[in-house]
Amino acid sequence: MELKDAICRRRSIRKFKPDPIPEAYITELLEAARLAPSGTNIQPWRFVVVESAEMKQRLAECTLGVSFIARAPVTIVCCADLEAVETRPQRIVELREAGAFVGTDFENVKMEDYIKQGEMDRNAARAYVTLNTAIAIEHIVLRATDLGLGSCWVMMFRQKQVKQLLGLGDNIVVVALLPIGFPDQDPPPRPRLKLEEILIKRV
Ligand SMILES: Cc1cc2nc3c(=O)[nH]c(=O)nc-3n(C[C@H](O)[C@H](O)[C@H](O)COP(=O)(O)O)c2cc1C
User: What is the Å distance from ligand 1's center to 151 Cα?
Assistant: First the structure.
């Protein structure tokens, strides 16, 4: 499928066929996430694939009435690792070795100066890893569309409860739940703002 088609055809799908998702598709979805871009290439995204009927039901109970999670063949619990921010020095070395900064002002910047400039408190780090993880999540969503699957971002869940259910550590932030399966609905496009409403100006 062309990228434009995937972007246009994607819908939030809330009704799924019971058919299982082929194992190779799960790998493809995670691979789409793995290839996403991230600030300083920190790649903070982490995933839990929830497939068992019992766990899906218990996960649905951690949401604010999002019962269709229990009926999706798979839900990917999309997380961000706060500790990924600490890996920036190592990531910069890798990027430099890979030639990412050749010909840019960044080529000769001292790593310590860069890290110092970008120092973050825990709130800033949380916002940063969440932003980066959202990109990976949307990669999964679009690749799912490409594979004929449907999905729906779900953020209406209780953070503490999901973390407890899945035994996730203090360093992990659950960003979104992503129920996925073959769609059992074919909804028309949802309302959107017009281009004129989103373009502030061209200068
Ligand atoms: C960050 C984010 C959070 C969302 N959270 C939920 C949610 O908790 N429950 C739900 O049913 N849909 C959720 N959605 C889906 C939106 O309702 C949906 O994207 C929007 O209404 C537009 O519809 P469309 O995705 O079909 O184009 C979420 C979407 C995004 C991007």
Answer: 10
Residues with CB under 6 A from ligand 1: 11-12, 66, 152-156, 190
Cα separation, 101 vs 95, in Å, equals: 7
Strand pairing of 150-151 and 45-50?
unpaired
What separation in Å is there between the alpha carbon of 103 and the centre of ligand 1? Answer: 41
Give the range of the structural domain holding residue 24, as residue numbers without chain letter.
3-198
pLDDT tens profile 27-52 = 999 999 999 999 999 999 999 999 99
> Is residue 63 in some structural domain?
yes
Q: What is the number of domains present in the chain?
A: 1
Q: How far apart are CA 78 and CA 2, in angstroms?
A: 25
pLDDT tens per residue, range 67-97? 999 999 999 999 999 999 999 999 999 999 9
The CATH number for 33's domain is 3.40.109.10
Q: Is residue 203 part of a domain?
A: no
Q: Is residue 174 part of a domain?
A: yes
DSSP 65: S
pTM beyond 0.90: the answer is: yes
Q: Measure 12 CA to ligand 1 centroid, in angstroms.
A: 6
Tell which one of 8, 12, 130 to mutate to probe ligand 1, the residue whose CB is within 8 A of the most ligand atoms: 12
